[in-house]
Write a structure and sequence with these properties.
Strand content: 25-35%
Number of helices: 2
Number of strands: 5
Distance between the termini: 39 Å
Largest sheet: 5 strands, antiparallel
Structural class: alpha+beta
């Protein structure tokens, strides 16, 4: 049994437009959720001075790097040591890496952490806090923008 679908004309444009609008809306919602998580983190976060104690070089095939690369070079994730208010020294690996490295071993950085769980720490930096909301929000805006233009063009043709 063979099933074939052929979509032509206005129906295809309508489905494409709806798909792009739905994808855009979903990406915008995800971007807003990530932004909300960052705002919540910033609201509760305490500050501490930290030191980059190592660079964790990893083969990164598309996931988690700050920089879009076309080759398979390793990516450096800074490992930071800091002492929160409880006095217990902590280490964490930042979630964003880059090549070339954004930080050098020995460099001082400002660390943000949750007082109740100092293991939830991030380097205070624009990309560390806002990269995911920007990516998803940007994709969402592009897709909803294209869907809107398609809708306007289709409406004018009628």
């Amino acid at each position: 049994m063979e099933i074939q679908f052929q979509v032509r004309g206005r129906g295809a444009h309508r489905w494409l437009m709806l798909g792009m609008a739905a994808t855009g809306a979903l990406c915008l919602v995800i971007g807003l959720i990530f932004a909300g998580v960052s705002v919540s983190f910033l609201t509760d976060a305490k500050r501490a001075r930290g030191t980059v104690v190592a660079l964790d070089w990893r083969e990164d095939h598309g996931g988690g790097s700050r920089k879009v690369r076309s080759d398979d070079e390793p990516v450096a994730y800074p490992v930071i040591e800091f002492t929160p208010a409880d006095g217990t020294p902590r280490k964490f690996r930042d979630s964003a890496g880059s090549n070339p490295p954004s930080y050098e071993v020995g460099e001082q950085v400002e660390v943000l952490y949750r007082p109740g769980s100092p293991e939830d720490a991030r380097i205070k930096g624009f990309l560390s806090l806002w990269l995911m909301p920007l990516i998803f929000g940007g994709i969402g805006l592009v897709f909803t923008g294209i869907a809107t233009v398609m809708a306007l063009v289709t409406r004018r043709r009628r």
